[in-house]
Amino acid sequence: MLNSVDFSGRPFHFIGIGGIGMSALAYVLTKRGLPVSGSDVRLTHITGRLQELGAHIFSSQNASNLNFFKSHGEDSLEPIPATAGVASALSGSEKSGSEKSGSEKSASGKSLQEGRSLSPSLLPQVVCSTAINPENPEYQAAIALGCPLFHRSDILAALIQDYQTIAVAGTHGKTTTSSLISYMLLKAGVDPTIIVGGEVNAWEGNARVG
């Protein structure tokens, strides 16, 4: 990771925000009061939930989407402080309408240029998964503008530094195990922040902020 993730109020833009892992991260950031935008070629109840929280969702992927916060100015970037608790975290499978298959590459580790048209506070931190094609117009625009680029795992790793963390790894059963642990914490009176790789009725989604 070439850049440090900035949680002080600088905006985030998710390429493929409708994916189960990407949307969970976007949910946590939005609930923490951070400016969030994102795009996906398929809008679902998951993107609708994010939109209701205040995230700005685009139904097409265009370079101009990265200018959203520039057009709304500095006043739209006031952060709301977050509280720390216990996190149950999972890196589950990522599937959204923006995904590609085959020989695609991760965005993590890309060299960046200096931003040319946006001030640093308005230049979004761009988040994507391994599934995003490097030729994606927003990905290419992020490189051209000098946006900090992060893989979704970078954001997850940065988030859980503020928490006592239970992480579940493995080949099968990660979501089930993470959900059971999270549910037990809730029933025990703990107020956990939860990120899992599936939607759970107990907290009505794939993420919860404690």
Structure overview:
The chain is of the alpha/beta class and 210 residues long. 28% of the residues lie in helices and 18% in strands. It has a domain at 12-83 and 94-161: NAD(P)-binding Rossmann-like Domain (Rossmann fold, 3-Layer(aba) Sandwich), CATH 3.40.50.720. It has six helices and nine strands; from the N terminus they run βαβαβαββαβαβαββ. Helix 1 (20-31) packs parallel to helix 2 (45-53). The radius of gyration is 16 Å and the shape is globular.
What descriptive keywords fit this protein?
210 residues; alpha/beta; Rossmann fold; five-stranded parallel beta sheet; four-stranded mixed beta sheet; globular
Q: Could you estimate the helical fraction of the residues in percent?
A: 25-40%
- Termini gap: 27 Å
H/E topology pattern = EHEHEHEEHEHEHEE
Strand order of the largest sheet: 3-2-1-5-6
**Gross geometry:** globular
Our Rg estimate from Cα atoms comes to 16 Å
Uncertain spans, ≥5 residues at pLDDT below 50? Answer: 79-95, 99-118
What is the typical, i.e. mean, pLDDT?
A: 81
Measured by DSSP, the beta-strand proportion falls in: 15-25%
Say what the CATH topology of one domain is: Rossmann fold
Helix/strand-derived class? alpha/beta
CATH class term of one domain: Alpha Beta
What does the secondary structure layout of this molecule look like, with pairings?
Elements (H helix, E strand, L loop, with lengths): L11 E4 L4 H12 L4 E4 L5 H9 L2 E3 L9 H5 L13 E4 L35 E4 L8 H9 L3 E3 H9 L3 E4 L6 H14 L5 E8 L4 E4 L2
Parallel strand pairs: 1-2, 1-5, 2-3, 4-7, 4-8, 5-6
Antiparallel strand pairs: 8-9
